[in-house]
DNA sequence: TACTTAATTGTACGTAGTTGCACTAAAGAT
DNA sequence: ATCTTTAGTGCAACTACGTACAATTAAGTA
């Protein structure tokens, strides 16, 4: 089983289930141009707990939206980056971001 | 107070808070071209309970993404449609839908 | 008089998502 | 031997999200 989508009633439902979640959008957006280590992500995703970060990264990895590369070093080093499928979501998150910015400024 | 966004760390976060929720995307998509009555929406959003539909519609209305028009008749008649702000989200939901369709077929 | 219809509302309950905090591993430096 | 660093894990608590089902309103019809 590739991921944890229960039952999608339509493609919109499916997509929302896959990138819903409190931090998924932000993480994907932050990873848009490059490789980030766990600690860098933790600093970038302001307010996230290590527990949630780990959990969310695992889900994104299971969903094949991000790639996790482990370096066998001590202290440990792990780098995260977008997969091709994940990269396909960037234009759409970008659109959403533009809309969000506009809305925030007009409140 | 216009809506219930607590604190957005960035525009991506803000946008996701505003159209997150289990049914919001689907409802907006269904309303993309026209006016629908409560009962019609209930049939269109397969699996939703009347309680959740009412609640979600209220949130979308408070967020100014949909417009609610009440006809003073008996039995009651209420029509929902997208506001201009809501319409701006359609291209992006459309993109998401395309991505979702592609993903669903490749599983 | 009772029944039907449309769009809800209210209460109670159950599950899923999120948080807080303490804790671990393993090598190298002090 | 203890300290430091990085990337986590484990558990309990809490809150938000979602479900189930009964009840409401008020005019029109049988």
TrEMBL record, chains A, B:
Pfam families: HxlR (PF01638). InterPro entries: HTH_HxlR, WH-like_DNA-bd_sf, WH_DNA-bd_sf. Residues 10-107 form the HTH hxlR-type domain. Keywords: DNA-binding, Transcription, Transcription regulation. The keyword DNA-binding applies. The keyword Membrane does not apply. PANTHER family: TRANSCRIPTIONAL REGULATOR, TRANSCRIPTIONAL REGULATOR, MARR FAMILY. This is Helix-turn-helix transcriptional regulator.
């Amino acid at each position: 089983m590739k991921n944890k989508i229960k039952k999608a009633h339509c493609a919109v439902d499916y997509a929302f289930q896959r990138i819903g979640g409190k931090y998924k959008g932000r993480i994907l957006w932050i990873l848009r141009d490059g490789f980030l280590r766990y600690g860098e992500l933790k600093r970038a995703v302001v307010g996230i707990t290590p527990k949630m970060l780990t959990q969310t990264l695992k889900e994104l990895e299971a969903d094949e939206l991000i790639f996790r590369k482990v370096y066998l070093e001590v202290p440990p080093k792990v780098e995260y980056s977008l997969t091709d499928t994940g990269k396909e979501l960037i234009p759409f998150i970008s659109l959403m971001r533009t809309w969000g910015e506009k809305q925030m400024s007009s409140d």
